[in-house]
Fold this sequence. Notes:
CATH architecture of the largest domain: Orthogonal Bundle
Strand content: 15-25%
Oligomer: single chain
Distance between the termini: 45 Å
Low-confidence stretches: none
Amino acid sequence: MAEFFIELFSEEIPARMQAGAATELARICGAVLTDLQISDVRTFYGPRRIALAATVAAQKSGGVIEARGPREGAPDAALAGFLGKHKASRDDVLVEGGFYLLRRAEPAVAAADLMAAVLPGALAKFSWPKSMRWGQSGDFTWVRPLRRMVCLLDGAVVPITLGPVTAGNETEGHRFMAPGAFTVTSAADWQAKLRDRKVIADQAERRALVVEGLNAVAAKAGLTVAEDAGLVDEVTGLVEWPVALLGNIDADFMSLPPEVRELSMKVNQRYVALRDVGGQPAPYFAFAANIEAKDGGTAIIAGNERVLRARLSDARHFWDLDLKTPLDALLPKLAKITFHAKIGTQLQRSERIAALAEKIALALGADASAADAAKTAARLCKADLVTGMVGEFPELQGIMGGYYAERMAQGSIVGPAIKTHYQPKGPSDAVPTGIVAVSVALADKLDTLIQFFQIGEKPTGSGDPYALRRAALGVIRIILENELNLPLRTFISNDELFGFIIERLRVKLRGEGQRFDVLDAVLAAGTDDNLVRVMQRVNAVSAFLATEDGANLLIAYRRAANILRIEDAKDGPHKAEPVLGPLPLPEEGQLRDMLAFLAGETVNDFRDGNFARAMAAFSKLRTLVDAFFDKVTVNDPVPQIRQNRLRLLAQLRDTMHQIADFSKIEG
């Protein structure tokens, strides 16, 4: 086996594209070098390079290949296509078994020769989210101008050509601290020499150094870093030799909302926010420079502080300007913003959300004051879309409205509800809490779902341009995590939409490793639009099935269902009707009496939410069913006895179906 190494060295690659580019390089090499048994693939990526190291065979093995072509007598075009596909001539094929057969010896091919033949064409189709044309011909595309390429097989150069660049064994180190080219002989040699020239090639190691450095400068000042994994990833993609530094934020800017200050630092400058010992925003920021400055970073820090002052001055301008206009005075401007051509304006949307939020609040038991606060917050929740701050930072919509609303009447209640009404934005985001906040957040998401389903704009396949799946999941999480006993069908008349929400609940359970089949079984027993109660039932049935009694009762249920299916085909259906006359065996009577008890009191317990008591009673059924199948012959030669026993099995099936349709349980 041999080591294969390739590096593509270019001008700066956007940080957001680097990981995807490394994956694409691995995909291409894996596909075109499969005949070389490529394995142990490792990728590297950073600001100016993507690279891959792998183990490959020294050659592609030779041998005899066979391929069956079209049937003898097929049109000439079919045969020509077959020959063209395999780069063969008519003399290379013979007729065998009524079909054309290609059989020829393939010589072994050296790995370097195979790479030279297949890699250039494959790399020329490299997929970038965005690319540019450059070079003399203007027909070569790459994310940024490609400057060098290294391609080695056990240290020897494989001189493939990509665009205007031909591979060699030279690369470059840090642009400023170690400029100039140097030669490499292997992946390990490449990494070591890059490190000597102030470049950390391995992205995981570089990220760890970024985190370690930021934490160190923060700790030195008695501070901690505000966690932001996405920002750390981006910073890692911007630096080759991370050097953490600490800067000051002018006190004048600390009165700005922290979200404004920190988003400006993050989006514009990739600065990391810091916290004091009490967990509050600190008047400092940390960042990773890409150079070891001779003055210890003093000039770099001063320059970044100067840039930050300008950025935050702009933010203060928008803040001060927005505060001059009360939030409710901005509502008329929403009439000029179209939410969707078939749905209407943002003002119309706000009025719908307000009415729905009030209705939800009342359904949750809110008093008149809280319901009015929910209505007010919902009516104002989109008003900040026309503010200067949200125009500059769209990511702050909702948050800024919350700050502006806090200066109004009921501000202490309305403001926080507006701030959180977009939550949860993702699976790790917290859900709103409190009756006013959850009412507004639910109303916002339900209105979106209702309106888009009404105009037929539903998700199809992987396409979901209006994020309706996320909205449905938000509804589910808000209800379940706040344990809201909310009848969804009070607000949703569209059965298809209710089914869509249930499907998202099913997907959520599947993703969490929970029993989504039990959800199907519970819902099949009777539609319930109270998601909290549905999940309580699901959890109760799941817990029961996890016990020995539950598992064995499921087996007995399936046995009963199979018998009924077979016998119903003969002379059925056999319904759960009263059993006629005396029962010959005691096991029949015991089962009948238990089923009567379960069909009454126990099923009512389950429906009323007394799940533990209901399932405890059901667990007693297991031994009686086992005894019935052990002692009783269902298909008795006496017709009336057989009919009674089939009715008992139907009672067993139907009684269990009142809890859940156990036929839907998998496994």
